[in-house]
Design goal:
alpha/beta; eight-stranded mixed sheet; 12 strands; 34% helix; globular; binds iron/sulfur cluster
């Protein structure tokens, strides 16, 4: 498979906490995963599980304070981005790592034209003559499948459809040729047909430009279509990780199994869908032991007392559940 030097981004034991006067929310609590060159990794979990905070940490966009990087490393091309200052991070953002957000209408500035905004994305990182900025902006719109790109450059965001706006966001992300795109719920606000078009577009651009993509999503349907590898997050930790086939065909962690059981499919048509009992814990008041234990049908006494270690099934497939691994005989404690 891929060699170690194929790794573009490596997140190692990342911890991001948010402090207020009387509590500490451990939003990301020891997360590790890699993104290799040209691959698609999905970070999946329910809202509030820490996946967006993980993405913001890579971009250097966690508000500090109240946020605090409490530990770990974010290695991009073997350099720890957590050591970079604001200026250095500014150069990385857009240039080497770009982000596409969920709601393009709030991410685009309503008072500037599409041309202004794509042009700005180019000018921020490169000193190029104005005529070239316009030509490149037009080409970027063409690359993301927008018809009559020269005319669209003069449009304002509200004149475009939701799908077109998301294409513009992707064009802006591509403006300086990044190696990694982080797409945070890029299709959640779109209807199903447009969703499929945007996923196909991102996939074909990724191939053409040999980029890596890190998807942040709650939607296992999206994951099943795009992922090479998957990390399932729960309450600030990685519950399970592996390649797409292992996660979908042979899930080991009870949380992944429950997420998959709640996914609609043809066989379940007409049946009531399974929903996981309980709710995601507040990151300031996480239960001790395994954070999933209050919702887990397999929980035994030790799950309430000891933190579960990652258990390996081979080929990079790991799950943080010793009970499923060997009946809970070993693999406990941090
Ligand atoms: Fe469930 Fe225990 Fe496994 Fe946690 S460690 S997922 S509570 S069985």
């Amino acid at each position: 498979m891929h060699a170690k030097n194929n790794i573009l981004l490596s997140i190692e034991d990342l911890k991001v906490y948010f402090r207020s006067e009387d509590e500490v929310a451990r939003a990301v609590d020891g997360v590790s995963f890699d993104v290799r060159r040209e691959e698609t990794v999905c970070l999946v979990g329910e809202s509030g599980c820490g996946k967006t905070v993980t993405a913001l940490s890579v971009m250097g966009l966690v508000p500090i304070p109240p946020g605090e990087i409490a530990g770990g490393r974010v290695l991009f091309r073997d350099q720890n981005l957590l050591d970079y200052n604001d200026n250095e991070m500014q150069k990385i953002r857009g240039n080497q790592i770009a982000m596409v957000f969920q709601e393009p209408l709030t991410s685009l500035n309503p008072v500037f034209t599409i041309g202004d905004q794509i042009g700005e994305a180019i000018r921020t990182h490169e000193d190029v003559p104005e005529s070239e900025v316009i030509g490149r902006s037009e080409q970027l719109l063409k690359d993301v499948g927008i018809a009559s790109p020269a005319e669209r450059l003069n449009d304002y965001p509200h004149q475009l459809s939701g799908g077109q706006r998301q294409r513009v966001m992707i064009a802006m992300a591509l403006a300086c040729g990044p190696d990694l795109i982080i797409a945070d719920e890029p299709t959640t606000a779109l209807d199903v047909t447009v969703q499929a078009q945007i996923l196909r577009l991102l996939g074909s651009i990724q191939k053409q430009r040999s980029m890596s993509v890190l998807y942040i999503t709650h939607d296992l349907g999206v994951v099943s279509k795009v992922a090479d590898r998957v990390s399932v997050m729960y309450a600030g930790i990685i519950a399970e990780q592996g390649n797409r086939q292992d996660i979908f065909n042979d899930p080991k962690h009870p949380y992944t199994q429950a997420l998959l059981a709640s996914l609609p499919n043809r066989e379940k048509r007409g049946q009531r869908l399974y929903s996981i009992p309980g709710t995601v814990p507040n990151p300031a008041y996480k239960p001790g032991g395994c954070p999933f234990h209050p919702r887990c049908q397999y929980a035994i006494q030790i799950c309430r007392e000891q933190y579960p270690a990652m258990c390996g099934y081979g080929n990079g497939h790991n799950a943080r559940c010793p009970v499923i691994f060997d009946g809970g005989r070993k693999n406990w404690g941090r």
